Amino acid sequence: MSIADRPMKGKLVFALLFLASAIPLVFAAPEARVIDPRYSVPLAVLPGQPFNATIVGAETAAGAWLLAPGFNVTLRVVGSWSQDGRLLVQLETPKGIQPGLYDLCLNVGGAICEPRSVWVLTREPEKLTIAHLTDIHVEVLVEGVRSTLFFETAINLVNSMPVDLAVFTGDNVDIGSDISSLKTFYSLTNRVRKPTLVVPGNHDHAQTDEKSFQELYYGLHVGPAYWYRVVGPFLIVGLDTGYAGYVDANQLKWLESVLSAFSGKVKVLLMHHPLFRANLFREINGSWREIEKLQPYLYASWANRIDEARELLRLVEEYSVSAVLAGHVHTDGLVVYNERTWFVTTVTTCGSGDYRGFKVVEVGKDGSVRVIGLPGRDPLRERSSFVLDGSLIRVVESPDRRASTVIAQPSPNLGLELPELSIFLLLNSSQPVESYKVYGNVTLVKGIELLPYNGFYAAKLTLVAPRDAATVTLASYEDREPPKVSLLMYTPRKPVANRDGVSMYLKAEDEGWGVQLVRLEYETDSLKGTIEAREAGPGSYRVELPPLNATKVRVTAVAVDFAGNSASDTLEIEYAQPPKPEEQQTGEQPTQQQQPSQQVEQPTPQPPAQQPPSYALALAVVLIVAIGAVVISKRAARRK
To answer: Would residue 242 be called left, alpha or beta, if left means φ above 0 and alpha means ψ between -120 and 50 degrees?
Structure first.
């Protein structure tokens, strides 16, 4: 179906000195970029309303504009000035601008853009419906599944749900200094077509110090550690509980200044470490003046910093905060404090825990709060987050973006009734629009919209939510080329029959529509079986072969792409036989030695390395000692 139709020591010291001298340069010479607003803290504006943008690494701004699929809107530059080494530019949106989420671009001697950083509203909202995600832990394995797959599924659900924005309350990556994961988080988050507000968690601080956290890692790739945003009658404040799990005195002082400046707003706080402990579901009445009475209910990091906990609770009480959203503990919790403030803790979206999921929190302009989750569950009495486990909704793109495939497999356990899925794709705009056609489960396609966007086609694909697994491919060509697959390695190298499982590592890639599945077929003299491979990373897969009673096993890796093309790779694994009972009783060792996994480099079986006899090893040691003694005696003679 077509679119138209529809000296090593000296060298080491020098290297270290060179590295040490180079490090300050990294901090001292930032490239021009927007630091406010960011994709992680977008700014809400109304048509015709002025707003400020803050830039580092630039002295002037000659022009500015907003980009969104199908829109390129010129902004009026009202004025600019320097402050603390930064350039502040006041901009104004035109009165006729369409509502939506825009990239902010400026001409500062070259174009710089911050994606999805300006949120244009038509009017002030009566309520905010918030998707609450937390503890994403990008690019870790969770029960054999890449956490990123849960994140992609959540993103596509957020795009399909009737929510106004999404908030991420920390642990966005697993290690704060992991630049690869930070870039993955940036890339995936910018697929959300709703505003995203993000705060850091303790894992985002891991392996960083204060300066590198701000200038090399989180601050560079995500955004500010704490911040506030006004959205009509609402004030949303993001806080940083740091690595230790509490908000320090300086930040609490800043928080009070913000709350007092916007005292008439409905207030929502976001932070990583919850004030109240995990798995706590109840109404609590109390006072910050008698916080010792509340200490049994506090989360450990706050209980250990009782002065900071008291001050936070004072601010919550005196400024009538409506909701405090948190994560960290990887499970649900809900405390309604003094019948006014809802402390909402949500299960991990992608990490290890009871299950993976998210909540929806609705806040009215009268300060009312409603927590929405699994049907039939009372969020004040039990865990109620929607369940991501078993669902998969993701997009697989070809390297040249001439094809994108949607995998849609919602689980009945999700607990979320969605009649439609809205999937957003970026396609290669060098191809004519009419060349793009739909393949796969075409009957699910309700609509396709292609709009120009930043050198691409931005495609919105509307699908009927499938009951079973489905794939839909949007491509400008037919894929007739098979994928590539190879068995990279396995361990142990010489498994013992009926005792050892074997870990198999595979690689599969496709230059066309993408790899749909990878499986391992195995065969012995008396047994055949098939195991589906699990994705361990981009293009890499892993299979666990169970213990087998065999002398050798023939294994075949098979990769199938979304067009149905397939490829395979085969090898044989030789198994050692277990020792006989009499050998175990006499202490004799089996003749075959299991090789450590780090020595396995080839995908084909190799015989174990021959060990030198013990007398040869002893002779070698004697020779080395003798030579050393001669050298030492000669040096001693020279000194004399």
So the answer is: left
Which is more confidently placed, 19 or 83? 83
- Between CA 150 and CA 350 the distance in angstroms is 5
Q: What are phi and psi of 111, to 5 degrees?
A: -80, 130
Q: Is the peptide bond before 195 cis (omega within 30 degrees of 0)?
A: no
Task: Tell me the average pLDDT across 633-638.
Answer: 48
**SS3 category, 214:** helix
What local confidence, expressed as pLDDT, does residue 626 receive? 55
**Helix or strand run (H / E) with residue 362:** strand 357-364
Q: What is the DSSP letter of 31?
A: P
User: For residue 536, how many C-alpha atoms fall within 13 Å in the half-sphere facing its CB?
Assistant: 13
Average pLDDT over residues 610-624: 46
Q: Are 307 and 254 in contact (CB under 8 A)?
A: no
Helix H, strand E, coil C: the string for 403-431 is EEEEEEECCHHHCCCCCEEEEEEEEECCC
- Indicate left, alpha or beta for 602 from its phi (over 0: left) and psi (-120 to 50: alpha): beta
Rounded to whole angstroms, how far apart are CA atoms 572 and 522? 9
- Which tokens go with 567? 């490829």
Residue 311 Cα to chain centre, angstroms:
33
Q: Which residues contact 15 (CB under 8 A, 6 or more apart)?
A: none
Please report where in the chains the tokens 């204060």 appear, as a residue: 210
Q: Characterize 52-66 residue by residue with b for buried, 16 or more Cβ atoms within 10 angstroms of its Cβ, and e for exposed.
A: ebebebbeebeebbb
Please state, in angstroms and as integers, the Cα–Cα distance from residue 435 to each residue in 70, 343, 431, 432, 563, following that order: 19, 52, 7, 5, 17
Confidence of residue 612 (pLDDT cuts 50, 70, 90): very low
Q: Are 608 and 593 in contact (CB under 8 A)?
A: yes
CA separation for the pair 589, 176 (Å, rounded) = 47
Strand, coil or helix: what is 591?
coil
Residue 359 in tokens: 């909540």
Edge to edge, what strands does the sheet with 341-345 contain? 227-231, 234-238, 266-270, 323-326, 341-345, 333-337, 281-284
What does the pLDDT look like over 486-503, one tens digit per residue? 999 999 999 999 999 999
Backbone angles phi, psi at 135, to 5 degrees: 50, 65
Neighbours of 387 (CB within 10 A): 21
Buried b (16+ CB within 10 A) or exposed e, 144-182: ebbbbbbbbbbbbbbbbbebbbbbbbbbbbbbbbbeebb
Strand, coil or helix: 292: helix
**Strand partners of residue 406:** 395, 472
Rounded Cα–Cα distance for residues 211 and 205 (Å): 11
